[in-house]
Protein 1
Amino acid sequence: GAVVSQHPSWVICKSGTSVKIECRSLDFQATTMFWYRQFPKQSLMLMATSNEGSKATYEQGVEKDKFLINHASLTLSTLTVTSAHPEDSSFYICSARGERGSLHEQYFGPGTRLTVT
Amino acid sequence: KQEVTQIPAALSVPEGENLVLNCSFTDSAIYNLQWFRQDPGKGLTSLLLIQSSQREQTSGRLNASLDKSSGRSTLYIAASQPGDSATYLCAVNTGTASKLTFGTGTRLQVTL
């Protein structure tokens, strides 16, 4: 139980284009989803927190107009990287929190590797 | 602001050894602490979660302890195997919107 999926698992795009990454909770309803970014050989950094039906809360230094987050349903959140540049190349991981497990337990997706050429 | 540090940053041990990974955090007001494993290029695998009221958790060859007052946790791996080679991350949940703050990670290599 408590499975979180991400799609795509990897994507290559050209500089200036936009890329959408999906995060789905497959067997539970996720009231809150989190988006993280991980650069090579570094740890995970929280980008934003999204609650179903409301605007995302972004961490300091994360451009909300560049990283658009939508959490339209209790099982789906999307992260759109707009006008992507090579420096946006990274590993993006989502997590979900909801009715499964303890109130403060997050379940992680497998990640999406984005490469911007 | 919560800061999480892991020591050592990298560790290489021969197969069969017992080892300890350390995690320290600056703000002791946490809900829980979690240990993860991450293989190269992959996502996170949750290993153990310790609630703030608990002192330790065990799963197979893994044992995690938590000393909240001193801001420390350890992950003990018994009888290490080559398959244990991975990066180990600890993360603390400080309760502010259930945000997780991750440590810097320990890259473990278990050699034959």
Protein 2
Amino acid sequence: EPEVTQTPSHQVTQMGQEVILRCVPISNHLYFYWYRQILGQKVEFLVSFYNNEISEKSEIFDDQFSVERPDGSNFTLKIRSTKLEDSAMYFCASSADSGYGYTFGSGTRLTVV
Amino acid sequence: RKEVEQDPGPFNVPEGATVAFNCTYSNSASQSFFWYRQDCRKEPKLLMSVYSSGNEDGRFTAQLNRASQYISLLIRDSKLSDSATYLCVPRRYGGSQGNLIFGKGTKLSVKP
């Protein structure tokens, strides 16, 4: 079964440092997403991406966040200057069509110290 | 009002039991609906889409009532492996394609 792949599985970073979280969506999918989940909380939407541009973003996705699809396979989330409250599990997802459910990757656990 | 409301549980049931989860959503413009399951510290996994006519997939049956903005999931003959958090997920339409809206879900624990 096709998978969404995320790397690394766990990243520890110091407050103020930049991090890049990487994702390889399913190859024939056209819509890409980032979500995050703080421990014990619900899954929260960050951003959606289609046709090489952001389609929608939440209030969480401020100027510290950016996304990029640098080539035909990778989809990245960059946090420029991490804060303690950015510690969470970050999930990448993709879908073939805007009406379908999403397939999620196994996530990157980001710990900011 | 929260976009998605579910009884948080936990629902503790014995193996073989039938269990039902209910969900209400607030955005009447939501067009697509899904049930996901999430194991502890894992990613959400799509369990099934929910169609207006209701649909069944093995031991799982989903129902949608658009007039009441209500979605349900029935699990028959529950297994130990069904233990997870079940998330009712409407798709909100906004921007150019919308996105899935998650609540906290309902925790199910199936005991031997």
Protein 3
Amino acid sequence: DAKTTQPPSMDCAEGRAANLPCNHSTISGNEYVYWYRQIHSQGPQYIIHGLKNNETNEMASLIITEDRKSSTLILPHATLRDTAVYYCIVQYQKVTFGTGTKLQVIP
Amino acid sequence: GAVVSQHPSRVICKSGTSVKIECRSLDFQATTMFWYRQFPKKSLMLMATSNEGSKATYEQGVEKDKFLINHASLTLSTLTVTSAHPEDSSFYICSANEQAFGTKYNEQFFGPGTRLTVL
């Protein structure tokens, strides 16, 4: 079973920051938080991951709470191409997907 | 990043035939590969974990005789849908695990998927 809870959908205006929340209250000490996204009819694309520290790369930032029970993915300047389903996953070995958040970026 | 390919990208077959889908890690060795299926507007469902040189581990409810998995080398895993029926029509996605050197986590890379349509 998926170990994460995400809102089913969100809208974001183009050019604004998109903040996607995720709850993972049962995360264990050796599990990382991963974010992937899936654009229609494609394989999932890796975005970012972290263990307990905040992380940033060229695509996004990941903010993990101190107790590690939740995290937020931040897309700093959303574009129309960021419209996708975003999956938050806690992972050690195999990856189990939840239902994800469908992000719609609006012009 | 590492690349995973799948072949074919799209296949249409008649009911009762078998279909083989290949998953390859192109620039890294993958001791573990995973197979998922995805129905329209649904999330990915893990079907099985494929380990090189050993039998696959299937998730509960997945018929191992229906979905044959072979992981013959560190860069290739195959999924064969035997005696396919229309209800097997789905989007099949593989992923490959690469142990990141010097870390405790496993980076996972996904293929582009294979769209199977059974008539």
Protein 4
Amino acid sequence: GAVVSQHPSWVICKSGTSVKIECRSLDFQATTMFWYRQFPKQSLMLMATSNEGSKATYEQGVEKDKFLINHASLTLSTLTVTSAHPEDSSFYICSSSTRDTQYFGPGTRLTVL
Amino acid sequence: DAKTTQPTSMDCAEGRAANLPCNHSTISGNEYVYWYRQIHSQGPQYIIHGLKNNETNEMASLIITEDRKSSTLILPHATLRDTAVYYCIVRPQGGAGSYQLTFGKGTKLSVIP
């Protein structure tokens, strides 16, 4: 149980385009989902906390207009990187939370050319 | 959240027990100890968590000292597939799972043939 999927697993896009990443909790409903970013040889950094049916809460320094988060159902959250630039290239990881534990997706490798 | 201190790296011989220490001397009474691991280029994997009693599951055992200021994750028979970065995190439980996880640098465990 507690399986979280992400799609796509990797994506390459041109600078200025937008990319959408989906995060799904497959076998449980998650009121809260989280989005993290990880640069090479660094630890995970929380970007935002997403609650179903409400606006996401962004961490300091994360642009909410650039990283659009939609959490329309208890099993699906999406992260859209708008007008992507090479510095947005990173490993994006989502997690879904039960009452006491977060379960992570496999991650999405984004490369912006 | 309370901060944790872990060794940067450790080696373990294949088939032997891997004992990963974590110091969390400022842990609060309502904070749990969580362990995750991240294999290269994958999302973090939940291992185990506990409050004050020792815990065991199919993956590992968690030993928490009586004063709760430190803990040890034990992988009883390490395999090459256990090579990963192991993160010890403390956080409150409950609140509909809305508490975030703060990742430190973790311990890079290398299992050696």
